Amino acid sequence: MAQRYWRIGGLLLATLVQASVALGDEAAFEACRAQLADQARAHGVPERIVESALLPVRYQARVIELDRAQPEFRQSFSAYFRARVSAARINTGRLMLASYPELWSRLLAEYGVPGRYLVAFWGLETNYGGFLGGMPTLDVLATLACDDRRSSFFTEQLMTALGLIERERLEPDRMRGSWAGAMGHTQFMPSTWRDHAVDGDGDGRIDLWNSIPDAMASAASYLADLGWRAGERWGREVRLPDGFPFAQSGLDQRRPLSHWRALGVRTARGELVPDLDLEAAVLVPMGHRGPAFLVYPNFDAIVAWNRSQSYALAVGHLADRIVGGGPLAAGLPDIDRAPARATVEALQRRLAELGHDPGEPDGLIGPATRAALRDWQAREGRIADGYPDPDTLRALGLEPAAEADET
Question: How many domains is the chain partitioned into structurally?
């Protein structure tokens, strides 16, 4: 009931403020803050928390700038992967895995999630606690709640954060995190904290900033709730045979492992993939000239944590490297830039003109765009890997201007 109330309230608040608080009107922010305070009181947030935590919040113009920012350059998969699965992160991850053996053993028994994956998430989210974020969380959430773009979502997050102050005895002035309101070693949003975080050290409260057991137990709890399957890995790098039907690649093209084995898909060491009772998908994030991965159901849990497939591949590979796995056998193409966002928008429009369905033209290469491009490539007799390399773009009548793409 409380969650539904906050969502309805957030929609009403968005209607009230979307025309007035956009890009820096602090007077309008003050009016919005008063409305947020009334909403919090109506829901039963104690007056002392309204006065001590909500009324002092300040508008953060930088948050809106970051929310609106469309960087001129974005990383290719190669650049993204190299930066996140670095030697330093691997070595520190091994140290962290060795430093808390009893914790990892307990969490494996309780949630079915091996420590190497929890350490990998920890490494990618905050560099093992090296950077937890420095922006005042309540200011961030209030600023975004009073902005028109996602007011409903951030209103709920703000109200949830106020509830966490009461429940976990948090100090508002010490609540700091990312520009989007994510908090702690695992960068949980307030609703994720509320719904999935657990007390990992037994002190009767949850502190994701200062308690590593709380943060790691909460990460394990969250992954279990997202559908993590005990005893299974995330996936693996694979070698694809000559003549592989790339039209069957993509996260939407799941088939039994026996299917991939019959096609001659091999592990990075050259053995045929095992014939297990699992469904898997082949991913080629940089097309047929780049590395290939076979991903299993646990990959979906990683993607549910963060919707980027590049992020999920980095988590899985980092976890493998932490326990002694080797680098990618195929290596990474020396490409740091991918198609410019404007080029991708043009690609999406062109594919739609040709009768394919790439989704809304947003300039992002997501699953729908890759699937539509695979369909076009297959129809044209090309290698249907869904990757917009320069030759493919030229064949579609597009100029392959360069920018990098993290997705």
Answer: 2
